[in-house]
Amino acid sequence: MNSPEASPLEVRVAAKTLVAQDICTLDLVRADGRPLPPAEPGAHIDLHLPSGRVRPYSLCQAPGEPRYRIGVLRDAASRGGSREVHDEVQAGQTLRMGAPRQRFGLAPQAEQHLLLAAGIGITPLLSMAQALQAQGRRYTLHYAARSRAQAAFLDLLGQPAFAPHTHLYLGDAGQRLDLAAVLSQPQPGTHVALCGPQRFIDAALACAQAAGWPSAQLHFERFGAEAGTGPSDPAAGDQAFEVELARSGRVIPVAADQTIARALAQAGMEPLLSCEQGVCGTCLTPVLAGEPDHRDSYLTPEERAAGTQILLCCSRARGGRLVLDL
Ligand code: FES
């Protein structure tokens, strides 16, 4: 259906490594031995798991490495994806993977980068730090984890190249990342990249906005919408509406307690889904007419205002009908 990418690639799990408590990495190479497509720092891929689940993961390898690396947190609130990676995926196994997609890149015009990570949010920022290090550009990485045991990639970040740029905050050592202090002084030319759970992003953005950082200098990616608070389920008071599929003329009713994706699936279609929480962008679909009611965390304010795209897993219609380019 609305595939935003070419057919998935077959990849082989070249290595699986436990790099911290409840965090493993998978190294992925192409099953046919050919080179992987280039990936920019901050890019993510959709991994198709043996169960059929599709999950987005940020790439965290250094630039130019011949394999991709993803880091996966075993999430107690998981809907099954992270548990499957930890418990069932093994080195040597063949999986399918979508091409890298980029929503969270380094601002090319920045003179300096401030990278703020919480928990598993370190993964895209690790790829950024490695790229900035390789290019000799100015950056500082602040990384908060609940404990030393739950902090990943400490061997790498402790190396002489990275250590002077890295500030580590370990909760079990009584250390805390003071977002208000780190973001207290907006700097022209400095761009901030944030990655972590929703509460961390919200707190960081609130501090940055209170300090007067221009929104154009703030870039973020949320990880792991929290259990029970994900945006995908309709809310009380939501109304039924219809979606018209422009290519076939079919009209599909969407009930008040249904998402567009579920209504399409019920009508026999197979919308491509991944996070199902409005975070990853896999289900992004062009809107030809009607007004979307955006419920996602993926589109920018400008994209929301334009109203020409919608996330099928969570967003709805303001009027009675949306016309989709499907
Ligand atoms: S499936 Fe991830 S945003 Fe819809």
Description:
This protein is an alpha/beta fold. The protein has three domains: 4-97, Translation factors (Elongation Factor Tu (Ef-tu), domain 3), CATH 2.40.30; 112-222, Nucleotide-binding domain of ferredoxin-NADP reductase (FNR) module (Rossmann fold), CATH 3.40.50.80; 241-324, Ubiquitin-like (UB roll). Helix content is 17%, strand content 30%. It is globular. Bound molecules: FE2/S2 (inorganic) cluster.
In a nutshell, what does this entry contain?
This protein is α/β, with parallel strands linked by helices and 326 residues long.
Task: Give the key terms.
about 325 residues, Ubiquitin-like (UB roll), Rossmann fold, Elongation Factor Tu (Ef-tu), domain 3, 3 domains, about 15% helix, disordered N terminus, 7 helices, alpha/beta, 6-stranded antiparallel sheet, 18 strands, 5-stranded parallel sheet, binds FE2/S2 (inorganic) cluster, about 30% strand
